[in-house]
Amino acid sequence: xxxxxxxxxxxxxxxxxxxxxxxxxxxxxxxxxxxxxxxxxxxxxxxxxxxxxxxxxxxxxxxxxxxxxxxxxxxxxxxxxxxxxxxxxxxxxxxxxxxxxxxxxxxxxxxxxxxxxxxxxxxxxxxxxxxxxxxxxxx
Length: 139
Description:
It is built from four helices and five strands; from the N terminus they run E-H-H-E-E-E-E-H-H.
């Protein structure tokens, strides 16, 4: 499964050169990831209420071409790796106008409880584990 999320680059995300500041792309990855998770049927908020956390443990960002204020972009998000405890999301951000690649990268996560102890989603939430595994295998 691949999810597509559209957003418009905001003025507050630009730097002195008038381009999107490099740090903002990690925020855009989060927008894509939370939308992806929600499209599977449960929001981050619902997971957290159930005591399940998905903290980021690694981020990789590769910059290709700049985005600027008011660019419409599409964030394509998919699961790159999943083993029931850890999962890696892969992101590609494109300008909607011409399809040019702006940035791509990954975030690695680990399912934990509130105490930040790693847990197996397979055991803690078997139904949702099945949905994630299906989305991962459908690619």
